[in-house]
Amino acid sequence: MDLGIRGKTALVCAASKGLGKGCAISLAREGVNLVITARGKEALEATAAEIRSLYKIKVEAIAGDITTPEGRAAALKACPSPDILVNNAGGPPPGDFRNWSREDWIKALDANMLAPIELIKAVVDGMIARRFGRIVNITSGAVKNPIPELGLSNGARTGLTGFVAGLSRQTVRHNVTINALLPGPFDTDRLRSNFEFNAKKLGKTAAELAKIRMDANPAGRFGTVEEFGDACAFLCGAQAGYITGQNLLLDGGAFPGTF
């Protein structure tokens, strides 16, 4: 399927690896020019070079922390008028809420709620004026099915989801959609770090916990960054203009609810 976005420009955050990289590659395959960001310059440049070698598109790499005003300013200077915005940032660390300070909460909110909102605010009016815009927020399956040790993430990402629920109903008449992708267990560094954290508490190895988690999933495996990226690309496509304010859960069927 031709998604009808060839020649568009996307700003993809935290795109040097993992789910963000998967989204960038899938968009590149559709002919979308990219501005990609991440904190690690070396990994980001390597990803940019890899994408350029695969697809004949423009790729600009802007190293910086998208959760800071300086990082956002640098990204928006390079890409002030994107047609597509993919919001993404690493989640806060796991832990016990009894040990979290106000500063821990503010840091989580800055990264996983307020930073995406600031980027949306910076680009959405331009999208409305051009009558095309696709915004995809990478949040977490924890928005629908909270994970106890990820309370900081549960709270901050759910806050973003609530904000978008209202805004997305205002922009869709201008062909600007805002949706979220909620990853369950995907084979990423983030998932592996969570296994390491819980292994220490439970007296097991990370590999043992990974096997238990895979066996418990109806799909019998973890998701791949490629299939996540393809879901993102579809939501960014011309054909997805009637989908807005939705939270697409990609978890291999792990969530047991009907809705």
Features:
8 helices; 7 strands; alpha/beta; 259 residues; seven-stranded parallel sheet
Description:
The chain has a 7-stranded parallel beta sheet, with helices on both faces. The chain is globular, with a radius of gyration of 18 Å. By secondary structure, it is of the alpha/beta class. The longest helix has 29 residues, at 102-130. α4 (102-130) links the parallel β4 and β5. Helix content is 47%, strand content 14%. It has helices at residues 18-29, 41-54, 69-78, 102-130, 151-171, 189-202, 206-216, 225-235, and strands at 9-12, 33-38, 59-63, 84-87, 133-138, 176-183, 247-250. The chain has 8 helices and 7 strands.
Estimate the strand proportion. Answer: 5-15%
Q: Roughly how many Å apart are the termini?
A: 28 Å
Major sheet: 7 strands, parallel
Which range best describes the helical content: under 10%, 10-25%, 25-40%, 40-55%, 55-70% or over 70%?
40-55%
Topology order in helix (H) and strand (E) letters: EHEHEHEHEHEHHHE
**DSSP helical segment count:** 8
Cα-atom radius of gyration: 18 Å
| Low-pLDDT ranges | none
Overall shape:
globular
Mean pLDDT: 95
Question: How do the strands line up in the largest sheet?
Answer: 3-2-1-4-5-6-7
| Global structural class | alpha/beta
How many E strands? Answer: 7
